[in-house]
């Protein structure tokens, strides 16, 4: 077990955790955003990030510092924290990004990690190979071998209290990502970044991103703090947290501001297209879009960057509260409605419901059925998989409504889309306290029918009757032939209730 990371709350695979960073003397609450700081081009002073935005941890590039003589000497003489004027924890990247962009860098893992330690980094990074999406399998495997050697080189060094990243690569090959995650988790390293995902995000391939992260998470153990390298747009944070990512780094707040782009939880807008700000952050309540447009370039960039950070940290706080309240997946569902590619990502997330279910708490806040995708959530899967634990009588009525008892049946269980059948005495237990629509959709009814089918298959000696009202034909088709299907109207009349 990694004693520097503790999980405090969970929902889905998302969690609120505590990451101890001993060299900084700090404990960082996760999910956490690490603003990217380029010491050659400061949009916002790092000291303000801590005092005004509550930033506990940031990330900067040790390769740039090492290659820039003035920065190198200042960092060696005064230390990284003094250079950046920041008292919190500092993670340093190694130059792997430059390697992916320019094809080569003149530094080894041992050299860059020793340099990071010398200048006072709190979390260092070896020189891994960020393999882009869609390369040949041969290249992905070859690059992964180099990355795994870099992890071995990092593991062999004595760097005191400095935590070390163990990047997880493997391109878009799920089996390689899983293998890389398992290999990284078996090392003595400390934080586990999932790398080379920025091209997927830049091209709105959120479904591929989800499958990539899910594969890496299958290899990593639950106690591994996971960093999603290059992810920091507020639109996708809820989705990434629900997958089990704990740390994010964002240069987007500054890069987008430089290009006149305004971040929101549903996407990115151009400042030139805005007449009103849809936000209540300190920047947006004290300025109009026109007032910001009239500023000089530096001031306009600073104001936009501050808004971009405010909206991102607001979303992180919202995500944490959703985890605490047990409704993270409802938040992901809402965010998925903001962009078609995010919707693809949400649907891909639910393709891994079995994986989420293994970490999802068995009891939490009220389940809200907010879309057909709610029928695929881990809570529904868990109920279906546990139906074989329930004992059924010889003659069982499954009914949507609160029908009275009858001598014709030994018991009457409820059937509630999307869960399907359950004994009435469980009605006040999670998740059957769910808030569901009065008019169930096709997806919910099909999921309920799947629950009926599973119950019937595990109880071959029970005689089942299903009483439903206006179910979709596709749901009725899921019901096994040996189940007698009746309308609720006929059942009520048989009970003398009409």
TrEMBL record:
State the source organism's domain of life.
Answer: Archaea
Record key words, sorted? Glycosyltransferase, Metal-binding, Transferase, tRNA processing, Zinc
Q: Which pathway, metabolic or otherwise, does it act in?
A: tRNA modification; archaeosine-tRNA biosynthesis
> What GO cellular-component annotations does this UniProt entry give?
cytoplasm
- Note accompanying the cofactor annotation: Binds 1 zinc ion per subunit.
GO BP, sorted A to Z = tRNA wobble guanine modification
Any idea which residues are catalytic in this one?
Answer: 93
Name the family. Belongs to the archaeosine tRNA-ribosyltransferase family.
Q: What is this protein called?
A: tRNA-guanine(15) transglycosylase
List the source organism: Halohasta litchfieldiae
Species classification = Archaea, Methanobacteriati, Methanobacteriota, Stenosarchaea group, Halobacteria
